[in-house]
């Protein structure tokens, strides 16, 4: 086959945009050209590299699919890797449309299962029904209104235990609030303010409809991010990373770890939700050291550079899977650590 591949990458205005571009350009088995796309041009690596940036609507907007398809046709795109969660279900619903134009939309194939996976609460509901996965489900409570919020918080141990209030759909930890009794001056000395009393949240949240949120137990232990390359429910490569230092929700220092429990759990989750291509799952340990599922990101994550440090270019292996039906490299250098720092670009 002709090994020239043109890849459209979305959300390139994110902090991982240049890292993803760099990973794609390092692929050796294919001659990769990158088409960058984002919802605006306020901040993007293309400003400094001189490449063209394609502006697209948000994934949930009506014109998203038409705009993306037009770019794919105009630019001769072969593969689309979406990097924003709100783009996944619309792309999954229109996979056949893109396929008719010779474009592979690298998203899970079943839009119904995908929608469940992208909803943090519905995903936990689904996983909780599986006996083999029960130990990986945190304690959590569904909400309808503020009365439910108080009942849920106290049921999970508040105020003696911290609990977490979070959105079902937000990305990158947006809208997540730690509920508890703050220590003296914690709100003045902590970068993120620390724990918030339940009464404060009640005052801040004006609406009574809280169906888009839920409450779960606070998990104080180690945090893990697991990158997976898979196809139709079968995991091909699984790379757990311990997130050793987290800054603003992003892993600044991570370490590739062989974790039997996580490997077994992730295989089952990939099968349960019939996931495909590059996906990511987040876990955090409870006070007893048991990992609990936080969320499923059925898209390209932001820290694939750590996998490359460990010997695996997930983009390259995804292309091998797409074009040859198999991966070629599974050898991970376990124990590898990756630190992420700002890299300056100039023009």
Automatic annotation (TrEMBL):
One of its GO terms (molecular function) is metal ion binding. Gene3D superfamilies: 3.40.50.20, ATP-grasp fold, B domain. InterPro entries: ATP-grasp (IPR011761), PylC_N (IPR048764). Pfam families: ATPgrasp_Ter (PF15632), PylC-like_N (PF21360). Residues 279-323 form the ATP-grasp domain. SUPFAM superfamilies: Glutathione synthetase ATP-binding domain-like (SSF56059). Keywords: ATP-binding, Nucleotide-binding. This is Carbamoyl phosphate synthase-like protein. It comes from Neomoorella humiferrea. The lineage of its organism: Bacteria, Bacillati, Bacillota, Clostridia, Neomoorellales.
């Amino acid at each position: 086959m002709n090994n020239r591949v043109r890849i459209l990458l979305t959300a390139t205005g994110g902090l991982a945009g240049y890292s993803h571009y760099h990973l794609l350009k390092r692929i050796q088995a294919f001659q990769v050209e990158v088409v960058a796309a984002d919802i605006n041009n306020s901040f993007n690596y293309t400003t400094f590299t001189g490449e063209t940036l394609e502006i697209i609507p948000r994934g949930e907007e009506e014109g998203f699919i038409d705009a993306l398809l037009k770019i794919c046709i105009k630019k001769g795109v072969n593969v689309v890797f979406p990097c924003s969660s709100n783009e996944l279900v619309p792309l999954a619903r229109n996979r056949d449309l893109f396929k008719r134009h010779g474009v592979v939309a690298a998203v899970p194939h079943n839009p119904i299962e995908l929608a469940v996976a992208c909803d943090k609460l519905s995903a936990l509901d689904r996983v909780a029904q599986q006996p083999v996965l029960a130990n990986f489900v945190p304690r959590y409570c569904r909400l309808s209104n503020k009365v439910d919020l108080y009942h849920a918080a106290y049921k999970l141990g508040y105020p003696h235990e911290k609990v977490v209030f979070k959105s079902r759909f937000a990305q990158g930890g947006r809208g997540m609030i730690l509920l508890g009794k703050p220590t003296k001056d914690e709100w003045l000395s902590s970068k993120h303010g620390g724990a918030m009393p339940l009464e404060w949240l009640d005052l801040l949240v004006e609406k009574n409809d809280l169906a888009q949120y839920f409450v779960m137990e606070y998990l104080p232990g180690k945090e893990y991010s697991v990158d997976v390359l898979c196809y139709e429910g079968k995991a091909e490569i699984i790379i757990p990373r311990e997130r050793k230092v987290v800054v603003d929700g992003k892993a600044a220092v991570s370490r590739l770890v062989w974790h039997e429990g996580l490997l077994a759990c992730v295989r089952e989750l990939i099968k349960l939700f019939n996931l495909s291509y590059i996906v990511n799952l987040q876990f955090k340990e409870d006070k007893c050291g048991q990992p609990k599922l936080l969320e499923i990101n059925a898209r390209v994550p932001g820290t694939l550079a750590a996998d490359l440090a460990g010997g695996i270019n997930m983009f390259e292996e995804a292309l091998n899977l797409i074009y040859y039906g198999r991966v070629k490299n599974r050898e991970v250098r376990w124990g590898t650590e990756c630190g992420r720092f700002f890299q300056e670009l100039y023009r």
